[in-house]
Known about the structure:
- Helix content is 73%, strand content 0%.
- The protein has helices at residues 2-31, 38-45, 49-55, 59-71, 87-102, 105-117, 122-149, 158-173, 175-179, 187-205.
- It is elongated.
- The protein starts with a helix and ends in a 6-residue tail after the last helix.
- Keywords: DNA-binding.
- Residues 37-56 bind DNA.
- This is TetR/AcrR family transcriptional regulator.
Amino acid sequence: xxxxxxxxxxxxxxxxxxxxxxxxxxxxxxxxxxxxxxxxxxxxxxxxxxxxxxxxxxxxxxxxxxxxxxxxxxxxxxxxxxxxxxxxxxxxxxxxxxxxxxxxxxxxxxxxxxxxxxxxxxxxxxxxxxxxxxxxxxxxxxxxxxxxxxxxxxxxxxxxxxxxxxxxxxxxxxxxxxxxxxxxxxxxxxxxxxxxxxxxxxxxxxxxxxx
Length: 211
């Protein structure tokens, strides 16, 4: 019984946390980071102020959680991990995972908040880069480095290659959404964009066959 109650309490806490981060993201977008108080977020999330302050004692801590959770949305999904030893398969998994991640409305909203508030709150940009984008790019870089070391790819500059690959996908999936309110490409078009990016990477980084 005690274990069931503990699990129940954890589920409730997680539900409240998700309600808080969702409400905060929406309010930051509509009212701005500076124009949104923790009290207003608690009201919008349907939780008490004490509940919110217990999880997020400051607005910066709340924004930090939004960034981290947005970029780690599928971190525990083993199906989203690249397969070692097969460059095409690994890049395909990474590419579709990345397209799904940055295609979420929450991610576009996060970028909009940072861009809008950057002149007054440069720390938001640092959080987005250091806690979200940089670790994600680093994970792709490490994958490419491991494939290079194993002889499955010829990637002498894995950092540059990771930026090339993810940049090709973001240029179609994310950045038009930041400027065009009606941008909503079909799933098949996103699939094709990822596959084209994979093909480009294979053409550049597949090792030459042994003589």
